[in-house]
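The instructor's notes for this session suggest beginning with a concrete chain rather than abstract definitions. Hand out the sequence below and ask the class to guess, before any prediction is shown, which regions might be ordered.
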Amino acid sequence: MHTLAFKSASPIMFIPRGHHSLAQVLLNGSIYPVFQPIINLADASVYAHESLIRGPQGTPMHTPDALFREAERESLSYEFESACVTTAMQAWSHMDTPGRLYLNISANALTHAFVQNGKNALLDWIAKLQLKTRMIVLELTEHERLDNLDQLLEVANQLRSVGVALALDDFGDGRSSLRLWSELKPEIVKIDKYFIKDVSTNGNKLKTIQALQQIADVFGTSLVAEGIEDIADLRVLRDLGITYGQGYFIGYPSRQPLQHVSDLVRQTIFERQVAVFPELSRSSQGGHLRSLSLLHAPTVTVDTCNDELAELFAQDASLHAVAVLSGDKPAGIINRVQFMNEFSKLYYREVWGRKSCRSHINFEPRIVERNHSVDELVGILTSQDQRYLSDGFIATDNGKYIGIGTGDQLVRSVTEMRIEAARHANPLTFLPGNIPISQHMERLMKKKVPFVACYADLNNFKPYNDHYGYWRGDEMIRLLARIAMEHCDSQRDFLGHVGGDDFIFLFQSHDWRERSQRIVTEFAERALAMFDDEARTRGGIEAEDRHGVMRFFPCTTVSIGAVAIDTHKYTRAEEVANLAAMAKHNAKLAGGVCEYRDGLV
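After discussion, reveal the predicted structure:
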């Protein structure tokens, strides 16, 4: 049994009639194509249609999954794929539809057809149907069963020589290969729908798509986002700059190709609203200490004598400790001060100088793997075992010794990584930090979208924090974060935490005044529950002011300074931040919501 793909309108031959149900379906010509639109996400135009196959309606083989399962069961995979391609091209040739036609075919079926018939068979078939080769895109599927990559690359070169483009389907679903992308260099790569669904709320998926964009830039590839089913996801993909989109929200597969997108899709593409990008999940915020400062110090073994060890310390006065290795793995650590205190005792050298240093070894050293997350290292710093402060620590890479470090270096590195992580996401509220805030401002200004920048700050927070303690103070800050999230539109309004009790709201919602006022009012009501009965009765607490003088402070409230930003006037996030800070200062004096327009009353 074999196929004569692309040569005639009936590509399946030598199939026993009635022997198998799929064979009969193919002989009867009962399969038919439907076409799903692929649009340009920049101008909402219909760029292409993907052909999808269907079996006889009302039968178990109507769906494509059922057809492919039956093709594999009956060993008709090549014949079935050939029939799908030729049936789709035949139907397309009778339609006066502009744009490209995407045809699904496995890499093995494509190379099989070329080995049997050569590229001229495809050219003749396309010419017979009065189609243009430059309008055909062959979408490669089933990459994991690729038999001969070199042969596929040769076929790809022949296809390109006649104007046919190639696409990789479902990139990222586990079957697709970055090596295949690199070597095949397809004109189009379709991102698997797993990464597209809920991208508006999943920061990990967003970062994955951004990484694919960088790879696509390197290879000169256009990206298609598959599986767009939600308006919020479409907004994010539009603002990411993904070239093309496909999915049920844009258009369902139909026997008649789509001429124009719906009004809702078109409005979404052209609206001036800027999508609020989700942030990474908490677990991915920690970072790793790849830049940890280390001393590549000499090492010893348990057989090294005390005289040799003393000589090592004498040669390098900065050496606070040495690592004891067993092979290339750490077995212990010897502290310089503790060793030299013993070695300098009367007659120690004469009695113990030529003996092993074993008695000075701490066989339970602090070992820091280079890929330890910051959160794991914080556990070391806060544990009851504080030997790292005197002994330092041993650093390993995949279990192998690479150097030693001091406790000070460990504390400093963890602190630096924490500060850097906080610039991306505040560790108290997990809201976006300074860097995402600035990036969102810049996206708003680049698109010339008018917005309102609000700076929120707690009134009388320091007295509360001093009086009740930092733990209660943190709860007060988290309360403001929760209330702000409840009253901001997650699709339109960006909520960021600068640090401490300072927050930034970037409103695209037209009712931002009402939202801001609700935040002020609700916080004032709910914050009272965080004071004791006496403070609530009196309306405040006695605490020291900044000059150390005891005085009365009213219960904590929030002030919000607002600035309406003309994005034709400002281009830098720093300018907006400065205006918002000025508005916050005046709002605190007014004790509520204070509005400015470009910094002027």
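Then share the key points. The mean pLDDT is 86. DSSP finds 23 helices and 21 strands in the chain.
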